Amino acid sequence: MEEFHGSCTENRSEFQRDYDRLVFSAPFRRLQNKTQIFPLPGSIFVHNRLTHSLEVSCVGRSLGNDVARKLLEKKPKLQETYLAEIGSIVSAACLAHDMGNPPFGHSGEKAISSYFSEGNGLKLKGMLLPEEWEDLIHFEGNANAFRLLTHQFEGRRKGGFAITYTTLASIVKYPFSSQEAGKRCKFGFFVSEKESFHRIADELGLLPLNNEKTAYARHPLVYLVEAADDICYQIMDIEDAYKLKIITSRETKELLLSYFEENKRERFLKTFNIVQDENEQIAYLRSSVIGLLIGECTRVFTENEEKILRGEFEGTLIKQVENRAATAYKNCSELSKKRIYCYKDVLDIELAGFRVITTLLDLMIQAVMEPEKAYSKLLMDRISDQYQTRAATLYEKIQAVLDYVSGMTDVYALDLYRKINGNSLPAV
Fold first, then answer.
1. How many other CB atoms are found less than 10 A from the CB of residue 79?
2. 3-state class of 29 per DSSP?
3. Backbone angles phi, psi at 189, to 5 degrees
4. Which residues touch 330 (CB under 8 Å, ≥6 apart)?
5. What is the pTM of this model?
6. Angstrom distances, CA of residue 332 to CA of 36, 189, 326
7. Residues 107, 38: Cα–Cα separation, whole Å
8. pLDDT (tens digit per residue) in 251-287
9. How far apart are CA 341 and CA 268, in angstroms?
């Protein structure tokens, strides 16, 4: 990893360059063809990973700028520091927060973990170190994003994306190794990236939570990245569900209006007498709710600044917003679990994703373990040279397969699945 410094004529800060570098990268572009929650759009456009990441980045920039302004009001002596760059850092980290997620939404992560914990991959357990095995059975998109951004793939430059340490640390929502996953459920870096994360943590002064340095306190800006994601996915999933007619316009309006006091609701209803298009009404409500939650999360962060810096703040910002907003957010969350995430088309994507991913893993892991076989040679020739399938250890070979599969779009994974199963052939 390297910290890149601009020349004296560079008109962007290092953190702004992080943002630009991510936007122009191939893994970021591929997010346009990865499922967020609902199947990729037909006649009705709903969010994919790309549009979600862009919206999270916008909200993150607002959160970062608002927090920076509040902190500078409290401590004007910090004017000459990097506080003014918080918005740039958070917006860049938000862009990258989902880049490590495999195809087919969150079910892709489950499919990979399940392949090793209860599928054909279980036979590999005795061939791997305990910590390597933990990485696989708890496969985590957040840890994979950190790997994608820092790992030197074959033929690529040292330092991966050459992103600044601060932006990288702001992406890691779970700064723990997979050895902690049993206690904490999620983790932020694989064994292969442990030293990289330790170097970042030491440089930035992250607080270790144990002597083994398998767990750290979060970087403070992680809370803003997480809040931006929490705000967007919850509110935008509700709007997508309305567009797909899973919930009615009346239900949608009631959910969004419940964030506001009575006098504010009356002003919305008066506006609706002028703006009668229901899509516009709901878009207006949605943007107002997002604005309210940005304000609330900014307040929670600045009021708890000292706790956050000491690594003592518990939970998320969104869970400590004021009572009315907290109740409304909880109601949106409960409706999403009951009506949206169990929706037939969403479940169909998860079922298909499981089959596609486990089949690809089965064939490719067998190929890297037995490269001398004829079918293995054909399949490995299909994989880009940047993935180190001929690595020295079994763990590294498996990681190369996971790098390849997790980087696929939904459409590419499905197309490859059909071809290697003989269900479709290239056009002649």
1. 9
2. helix
3. -155, 145
4. none
5. 0.91
6. 17, 31, 10
7. 12
8. 999 999 999 999 898 899 888 889 889 999 999 999 9
9. 29
